[in-house]
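Summary for the steering committee. The consortium agreed at its last meeting that each partner would contribute one worked example illustrating the joint modelling workflow. Our contribution is presented below. We chose a case with several input lines so that the handling of multiple components could be demonstrated. No manual editing was applied between input and output; the record is shown as generated.
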Amino acid sequence: GENVEQHPSTLSVQEGDSAVIKCTYSDSASNYFPWYKQELGKRPQLIIDIRSNVGEKKDQRIAVTLNKTAKHFSLHITETQPEDSAVYFCAASTSDYKLSFGAGTTVTVRA
Amino acid sequence: NAGVTQTPKFQVLKTGQSMTLQCAQDMNHNSMYWYRQDPGMGLRLIYYSASEGTTDKGEVPNGYNVSRLNKREFSLRLESAAPSQTSVYFCASGLSGANVLTFGAGSRLTVL
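What follows is the complete predicted structure of the assembly.
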């Protein structure tokens, strides 16, 4: 099955700086790559996703890039704010119903 | 709209006891999922239901059973709980496959 690795496991950034989280996947047939944000004690929520026919997607301060050749994709958060502190999960999907998640990155934004 | 509702929020079981986690969605979604979340391991798919009347195994199905009761409801049953099943369980639903999943609030299960 699909194997998704996520780095780093923890990330501390100064408010206003950028944060980057990287994920690699094993199955070249994967075609859908979502990112979920989970605040402490809350449910995961989708923040952005990208499909394999697109190289980059932006939504305000967040962006995702995909390199199909290298089989990796990244989440970029610019101008970080305290409310960006959370656990972020990447995922990859090879079928319509099976998402494989990374282990998560705990992001802390220091004021 | 309530979205995805799961019960109970917390449960403590003894080894060998059984229980059922309930999940209901009011978004008219076709597919429903059960995941477990363990520290350092992300979310792992236990079972899913692509549509009413169908269920399939995910990544970690051993020790669990599911029932898609109707389009709205998808339950997860532990027949004989084991300490290794101590986890936080999330139900989720999707309109079209696993794209744009909506998660429930989670159920924290402890097996002693």
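Residues 7 and 15 of chain A are 20 Å apart (CA to CA). Chain A has a mean pLDDT of 95.
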